[in-house]
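Human: I wish I could look at a protein chain and see how it folds. This is the protein in question:
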Amino acid sequence: MRFFIVSFMAIMQLMAAPSAQAHDDHPRVDACHFILAHQEWNPVSVVRFIRCADEVWNVPGTPKYIISIARCESGLRYRAYNSSGPYLGIFQHVQSAWSERVERYIQPLHIRDTRWLNPEVNILIALRMAISMRGWPNDQWSCA
């Protein structure tokens, strides 16, 4: 029953969400919050969030392609860390670019927790980068 109520609320929220195409600088950040109501981040919730965000913000590439990049980069693990960059999180952002990416892609959204360990932020930066670059260049993601 709880699943039905949460699903119904999610559908209603998505239907009421304004199109991201209308004003891409400020997409509906809260539109996909329902995904994680009372649960921990895991590969399933990462996939669900990516699918929702793709639907809300019309990200280049299919959800399957975007998920395959995240799966290849991090195994869909939000705490993934590669010391060779170092590379951080689900989409393995290079640490030296994190602050600039937060400033460019997250600060306009007024999200408080901008750590790379915040899966929403890590995903949203990658998706907003793909939107601004009109695709997934392999100089940003080796798995693209």
